[in-house]
Amino acid sequence: MYRKLEADYNFILYVVQISLGMIKFSGEVFMLKGKTVVVGVSGGIAAYKVVEVVSRLHKLHADVNVIMTENAAKFVTPLTFRSISHNPVITDMFSEPAKWDIQHVSLAMKADIIVVAPATANIIGKVANGIADDMLTTTIMATKAPVVFVPAMNTNMYENPIVQENIKKLSERGYIFLEPETGLMACGTEGKGRLPEPQAIVEKICKLLCEKDDFRDLKVLITAGPTQEPIDPVRYITNRSSGKMGYAIAAQAQKRGAKVKIVSGPVNISPPYGVEVVYVKTADEMYNEVMKSYADFDILIMVAAVADYKCAQIAEKKIKKKDEKLTIELVKNPDIAKELGKVKGNRILVGFSAETDKLVNNACEKLASKNLDMIIANDVTQEGAGFGTDTNIIKIIKKDGEIVDFPLMSKLEAGDRILDEVIKLIGKNGVDNK
To answer: Which residues bind CTP (predicted)?
Structure first.
């Protein structure tokens, strides 16, 4: 009862403030003209604040379409959002549509971005586990547009390991999260879990729609993960690569508008949403797939930790223990980046150099010998920069000798910084492979 009364009071206050012009809207008036924003409202008390989010988006000339869950309609009426957005509000998956189309498919296809605010633990959990049982979750599943979750819930609920695991799972798949704020909660406690201010939410939407569209019309080919070189039917040679760095770059490139393909070695992570993935095992398989595909791409980013050597002969049956020593003859694998360097034309070719010593010297040697445009070097002996972590510490070294150092950051952030430098190279050199 307390929550409902507080929601009613705050909602009325917001509507009055918006009507009287007491809440100001920053930014260019036509900033979002031509953009379709789908706002998904789930059942949290912070739903009343989303009225202002929709109003701000409409004032920026976005085409705003609101989907409400059944519980959300208990906090704010659909009529309110319809009046503010000037569009029908969808609440029922099986209601008669205003015009004939399959609504979740129609909205999913025309959306430039989907924003879920407030994003409850329930809606996050559903999407993380592939449940699509209402119009909002179904639309999210059907879209290829960026999806932004804006969590708002009780502090203890937000910090619950299951909720955090679901957030991490979705983040790794390319979904975007706007961190909740810390403050007094509706339940009377204080902590992290408050919905960010409407202005912050709208600014995030504007940034994603207007500032990170720089890879649109570009095609990016990325290799990721380790390779496995068989010794016999049950054993193989491999390395510690998890594929997280390559997948992070792919997720960020896709968010920025690129068409992305990953050629991936064996990994235990899910691919980013909207990214094509071809799985391979051996270095030869990866080489063949890359050389078959590279001509269709503008940017080639070789992140995979490809095994340098493979067995000269692969045993047809499991090798049994006999002697104290076992000698296996190894031969070199193809150097994929080096072969691309010979045929890349005007494409941008980026390599990676994971080292344990002489970081810059070794990376620069690879940069020159493989005809790379840029190489990302990291010292895998540093804490937080090795294989399998969610973070990295990178140096970006360019062909002209410029070195850009970055501190410890998440691999998703590092992926964005790498793409920032790639786009600078495109602006300087251009790409024309048609």
So the answer is: 308, 318, 352, 366, 370
Among 132-146, 258-272, 366-380, 416-430, the minimum mean pLDDT is found in 416-430
Q: What are phi and psi of 258, to 5 degrees?
A: -75, 155
Token code pair at residue 234:
């049950």
C-beta separation of 335 from 291 below 8 A = no
Name every residue whose Cβ is closer than 8 Å to that of residue 162 and which is 6 or more positions away in sequence: 125
Which residues does the annotation place in the binding site for CTP?
308, 318, 352, 366, 370
Kindly calculate the radius of gyration of the chain based on its CA atoms and give it in whole angstroms. Answer: 25
Helix axes 121-128, 161-172, angle to 10 degrees: 50
**In the chain, ranges of CATH 3.40.50.10300 domains:** 219-316+323-429
pTM attached to this predicted model: 0.61
CA-nearest of 83, 80, 158, 85 to 115 is 85
Residues of the chain with CATH 3.40.50.1950: 2-211
Task: Give the tokens for residue 194.
Answer: 């408050």
Q: Is CATH 3.40.50.12780 the classification given to domain 219-316+323-429?
A: no
Q: Cα dist. 310→164, 224, 238, 325 in Å?
A: 40, 18, 10, 19
Residue 3 pLDDT level (bands cut at 50, 70, 90): very low
Alpha-carbon gap, residue 224 to 81, rounded angstroms: 44
**Which residues belong to the active site?**
187
Q: Which residues are annotated as a binding site?
A: 308, 318, 352, 366, 370
150 touches 117 (CB < 8 A): yes
What are residue 392's DSSP bridge partners?
409
| Helix residue ranges, H only, 129-275 | 135-142, 155-159, 161-172, 198-206, 244-255
Residue tagged 């204080």 (tokens): 190
Distance separating alpha carbons of residues 122 and 135, to the nearest angstrom: 14
322-339: per-residue pLDDT in tens? Answer: 888 889 999 999 999 999
CATH code reported for the domain at 2-211? 3.40.50.1950
Taking only the tens place, the pLDDT of each residue in 61-90 is 899 999 999 999 999 999 999 999 999 999
For residue 256, the SS3 value is coil
Which segments of 65-207 does DSSP mark as H helices, in order? 78-85, 103-110, 121-128, 135-142, 155-159, 161-172, 198-206
Within 13 A of 199's CA, how many CA atoms are on the CB side? 6
